[in-house]
Amino acid sequence: MQLSHEQHAQFERDGYLFFPSLFSPEETCKLNAAVPALYERREAFNVREKGSDAVRTNFAAHMYSREFATLARHPRMIEPVESLFGEKLYMHQFKINGKMAFEGDVWQWHQDYGTWLNDDMMPTERAMNIAIFLDDVNEHNGPLMFIPGSHKRGVIDAKHDLTTTSYPLWTVDNDLIRQLVERAGGKGRYDQDGRLVDSGIVSPKGPAGSMILFHSCLVHASTSNLSPWNRVSVYLSLCAVGNHIRRHKRPEYIAHRDFTPISCLPDDCLLKDYPVDLPWKNGLPASALQTSLQPFDASPQPA
Ligand code: SIN
Ligand code: MN
């Protein structure tokens, strides 16, 4: 899938692109059906909500689940990002966020690149997020909120929040959020049909199978899910190969260390069986839990 000239321009301006119903119900149902068995596992890769058994985020399913290993090589997600960067990509992070009915907690305002820089020493912002909805996303089940154009601010000062939720995050201060939202349109206005337009906060919503592509510096957040509907979404963080991380402060199941370029499967891969590698199918190797505060030498080693 290639992006049009208009889509390139829209991405530059807003920092995100929305593709409603990019995947069919048949493709999405197969993925959604594989989630409960992954969430049941008592492993480090399942981070649960504070004080609850509900999974907040599952890491690295593409390393041990056939369905998600296939999704991780899907041309409808990989090709547009390759076209934006003009470079091959590797998988920096792979998550299935639960945001489960009644239990899904907030994600505070943040930029993803803030974490990748501060924790992983990723040299530049040449990395992209893709979100795929596995459930319908509406105004009630905690949709993502974006501040359009906020990616243009580059890296914003952030503080490491270790207490609000069960997952540590480099978060952006409320005063700055107020300014960024004001600059992006503030409260916006209502058009003749009663629709909110030109708002400084937007929330792409749509059926399961929809995809969002968003810049690693785009400021985003989501509220809790008090509705009776799950909001399971998959997030791929795709990094340009030459921009790979330089430090392994976080374990490998969170920030990956294999910088091999992704090769795509055919477009019908979610409907047919193609062979995929599942290196962690028998459990996390001990090496996937090891961490270091020291940067590693990224220069090519002599043969
Ligand atoms: C994230 O920003 O990484 C997750 C946000 C969400 O799932 O709502
Ligand atoms: Mn994020």
SSE map:
Blueprint: H1 5-14, E1 16-19, H2 25-40, E2 46-48, E3 55-59, H3 66-71, H4 75-85, E4 89-97, E5 107-110, H5 112-118, E6 127-133, E7 144-146, E8 159-161, E9 169-171, H6 174-183, E10 189-190, E11 196-197, E12 211-215, E13 220-222, E14 233-240
Antiparallel strand pairs: 1-12, 2-3, 3-4, 4-14, 5-13, 6-12, 6-14, 7-13, 8-9, 10-11
Bound molecules: succinic acid and manganese (II) ion.
Short description:
With 303 residues, this protein is an alpha+beta fold.
Description:
The strands form 4 sheets. The chain has a 7-stranded antiparallel beta sheet. A 3-stranded antiparallel beta sheet has the order 5-13-7, with no helix packed on it. The longest helix is centred in the N-terminal third of the chain and has 16 residues. It is globular, with a radius of gyration of 19 Å. The chain has 303 residues and is α+β, with helices and mostly antiparallel strands. Helix content is 20%, strand content 20%. The protein has a single domain, classed as Sandwich (Jelly Rolls). The site of manganese (II) ion has 3 residues, from loops. Succinic acid binds next to strand 13 and strand 14.
